[in-house]
Automatic annotation (TrEMBL):
SUPFAM superfamilies: RING/U-box. It comes from the Eukaryota. It comes from Diversispora eburnea. Gene3D superfamilies: Zinc/RING finger domain, C3HC4 (zinc finger). This is 9956_t:CDS:1.
Amino acid sequence: VKSERRGYGLRIYWDALIKDYKRTQLKGFAYKIIYYETPERIPEEHQKSDLCGVCRKELLPQLTNHITILNCGHLFHWQCLKREP
């Protein structure tokens, strides 16, 4: 009871609330991606052979999976980003 009067209960509540908010915002950032289905639609500056940052398999030239490009320019397979840890 004394600890709640000092605000410890509120601190735990706010810490959990802030942690949840950060997680939600990070998911929002991850889903603000550019989604491409065909190689012709991928911007020229990204049309080079590259590796997926998650599975480390080649992204191009054979496009067997949908490609996503984050705002920062990193390329990933859509399914690799979609997977939950």
